[in-house]
Amino acid sequence: MTRRLGRRAVLSALAATPLAGCAIPGDRRGTPTATPDPVVLPYASDDPEENLDRARGFAIQNRTGTEHFVTVAVDAPDRTLFVETRTVDPWSVFRTGDIVRKRGVYRVVIETGAGDRAVHGWVVWPGIEGFEAFLDDAGLRTVQSVFCGPDCRPVSVGGESTDLPYRAPDAAFSTRTAALAVRNATTTAQDIAVGIADGDRTVVDYEYAVPPGVGVQLPVTRTPGVLDLRLAADGETYTEAWHVPEEQHVRFTVGAASIRPDCRDQTPGLAVTRLRNDDGDPHRLRIEISTDGDRVAQQTYDLPARSSLPEITIGGVSGNASDDTTEPSESPTGSETPTQDDEWSGNPEMLPTTTADADRYDLRVVVDDERELTATWTICYPDDELTVEVDADGTPQLFSPTRGLIRL
């Protein structure tokens, strides 16, 4: 285990780059303006060691069919470097040109004539790029990700960590890298603490000073299992069990007095849309679904050898059930979802239902009452529809269209 840089050592790199406030001149009615005082751009330090090899700017993309009047201001600690207003045509890009070469974090404020406003701490540092702003139907947003391993100056403050991605010494096999992303959605810098443990082993115990609008990403583990995750920011704390590899990428937003997962809105919950038997022998497959610890559905299916049942839906539909039965749901043919002991009869609508707003999903698959697979989601919903497969050895497996085999 290696000890990382302490807070004071890293913050000294930030001392020259506080996020100063700025006022934005310009007439929202459409009169273009430019930087009021002469500033030599790109802004650079007299010390060559503090400068990047090349200057940087950024772009604002208008992804709407409407023109927008946009004002952009960029602040260094002691001066305004850049102010410009212009009309951005539909489906076009506003490029600032080269603004800075000196390393640091710069305050960027973007406003539109429609009243949208974004504040971003633009990180200008070797190896950190990708700052962009977007105007779309959802409004104005900025994007910049900093990849940490766990250090990532000038955003990392310090702490301790194993080598990332973590590999447990007693792990039977490795999985794809599971990653954590945390974005600061406020308009001020936030101190964000990240704690991840595998039982008694510390995987990451680190602190980050994250500028507004910036996201921090860590490649955390390649070991399947359950990690203890803890995030803290602005007096708020979030703790949860993180299941790997089911939850391969967990994403969080730090807002005003809140820390929340933002990876739940893309999918309706747990949904299995295909069953497949790749074995040369027939198998009886039982699927159980639980939400928040309560079993809401159980179904049994007889799968012929080398067969598949496509275009089905298990879960993802609102419903409530007892431990023994599922609630009926109307199908195009008017059939009802069967009880737990009903077997597959060739009707793809005879399937269980689950709720889409649960905090925890559990999936259990049993083949011939002998071999079983279990999967759990507590932070993020499954990011794709799932396929349950019985492989050539009669072992149950879980597949995702985008991720392939989810090796459990």
Automatic annotation (TrEMBL):
Q: Where does the source fall among the domains of life?
A: Archaea
Give all residue intervals belonging to the Ig-like domain: 66-137, 355-398
Supply the InterPro entries for this chain: Ig_halo
Q: One Pfam match, by short name?
A: Ig_halo
Region spans: Disordered: 301-356
Report biased composition (Polar residues) as residue ranges.
Answer: 319-338
Q: What is this protein called?
A: Ig-like domain-containing protein
* Protein source organism: Salinirubrum litoreum
Q: What is this organism's lineage?
A: Archaea, Methanobacteriati, Methanobacteriota, Stenosarchaea group, Halobacteria
